[in-house]
């Protein structure tokens, strides 16, 4: 079954079934400032009779995969910039043929959204071939870092890094991808002790299964996934060096376990990791959240260390309109928010729009499930 050829509306069927500079640690551990948020940005939106939990943050361009951060009290969103290229839909996701990144900002959750224009173009990345997918960003020692997955000239996804003195760029790319990086969807998390980690990976079009032997395998990708009764592939991670441009240690796989303490099997596609990982910390616990891909859920698991293992806890959000689902989580002014995307504006799975909605924590720190 293809990664990207499924109908664009699985969501509706499934629904009926069912620190000043680092934003993804809780405010008890890092300072957050800014104006009080109200709730209008999370107000329901309606298109063609359909009701949505929130409205698109901008309508002028298509945006997806929003990695949100609070830098110096302001919200910055690092999304993919979806475009129509006419590429036919296929198993590799060739129709997600993005060529640049635009960064969005807002002073508060309901503030005006500013599009800061092109922050990095694929033509300015010396090693890049095609497809600029979901990026993330970090701030350290006066420099902003944009981490981005793009296929190299051999059509292998690698993760690059680009730097700027401004959170909105323009960013200058390093001449080579991060050594040892692979696959897609970098998510960068700085812990309260100042150590920074990158989580990465995505199966199918994201190529994670091609790295099972430790080396990239260009043969038929359908032969590379574990069988349904085998252990599922986990996301990868590594600590970043203090220069933020390289890994300080070999890339390793993290374990996601069921409540029974056993790793998920590859055939368990309502629980196993697919793509779009995100890490945040709350009350000393590490929350790793991710997309289940072909079952279109955003789910979360918790652990006691940034290295895991992580134990599955539940569903953050039921399927959105559109095949892909990808998110980030930030705290702003004492409230927690989920940034995500759907296809409300286009109803085309490769032309998405980013949204934000408030998350509700349960007394145990977990989340109530949202219906988008
Ligand atoms: O935007 C392209 C890909 O689609 C992302 O890398 C995935 O997370 C999915 O959203």
Automatic annotation (TrEMBL):
GO BP annotations, alphabetical order: xylan catabolic process
Name assigned to this protein: Alpha-N-arabinofuranosidase
Record's keyword terms, sorted: Carbohydrate metabolism, Glycosidase, Hydrolase, Polysaccharide degradation, Xylan degradation
Disordered as annotated region, ranges: 215-234
CDD domains named in the record: GH43_CoXyl43_like
Site (Important for catalytic activity, responsible for pKa modulation of the active site Glu and correct orientation of both the proton donor and substrate): 185
A Pfam cross-reference name: Glyco_hydro_43
GO MF annotation list: hydrolase activity, hydrolyzing O-glycosyl compounds
Record lineage: Bacteria, Pseudomonadati, Bacteroidota, Cytophagia, Cytophagales
UniProt feature, compositional bias: Basic and acidic residues: 215-233
Gene3D superfamilies in the cross-refs: Glycosyl hydrolase domain, family 43
Gene source species: Hymenobacter fodinae
Protein family per UniProt: Belongs to the glycosyl hydrolase 43 family.
Keyword Hydrolase appears in the UniProt entry: yes
């Amino acid at each position: 079954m293809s990664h990207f050829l499924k109908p664009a509306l699985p969501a509706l069927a499934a629904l009926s079934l069912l620190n000043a500079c680092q934003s993804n640690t809780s405010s008890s551990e890092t300072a957050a400032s800014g104006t009080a948020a109200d709730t209008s940005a999370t107000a329901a939106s309606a298109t063609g009779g359909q009701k949505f939990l929130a409205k698109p943050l901008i309508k002028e361009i298509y945006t997806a995969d929003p990695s949100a951060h609070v830098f110096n009290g302001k919200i910055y969103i690092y999304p993919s910039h979806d475009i129509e290229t006419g590429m036919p839909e296929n198993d590799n996701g060739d129709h997600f043929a993005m060529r640049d990144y635009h960064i969005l900002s807002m002073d508060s959750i309901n503030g005006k959204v500013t599009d800061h224009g092109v922050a990095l173009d694929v033509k300015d990345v010396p090693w890049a071939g095609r497809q600029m997918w979901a990026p993330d960003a970090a701030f350290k020692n006066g420099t902003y870092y944009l981490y981005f997955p793009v296929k190299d000239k051999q059509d292998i996804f690698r993760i690059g890094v680009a730097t700027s003195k401004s959170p909105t760029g323009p960013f200058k790319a390093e001449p080579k991808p991060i050594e040892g990086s692979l696959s897609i969807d970098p998510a960068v998390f700085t812990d309260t002790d100042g150590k920074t980690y990158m989580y990465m990976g995505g199966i199918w079009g994201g190529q994670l299964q091609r790295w099972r032997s430790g080396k990239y395998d260009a043969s038929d990708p359908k032969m590379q996934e574990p069988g349904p009764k085998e252990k599922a592939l986990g996301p990868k991670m590594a600590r970043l060096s203090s220069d933020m441009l390289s890994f300080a240690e070999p890339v390793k796989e993290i374990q996601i376990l069921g409540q029974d303490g056993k790793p998920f099997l590859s055939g368990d596609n309502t629980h196993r990791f697919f793509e779009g990982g995100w890490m945040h910390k709350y009350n000393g616990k590490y929350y790793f959240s991710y997309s289940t891909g072909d079952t279109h859920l955003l789910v979360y698991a918790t652990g006691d260390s940034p290295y895991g293992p992580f134990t599955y806890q539940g569903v953050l959000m039921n399927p959105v309109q559109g095949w892909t689902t990808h998110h980030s989580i930030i705290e702003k002014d004492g409230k927690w928010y989920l940034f995500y995307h759907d296809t409300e504006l286009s109803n085309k799975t490769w032309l998405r729009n980013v949204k934000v909605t408030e998350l509700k924590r349960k007394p145990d720190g977990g989340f109530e499930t949202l219906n988008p």
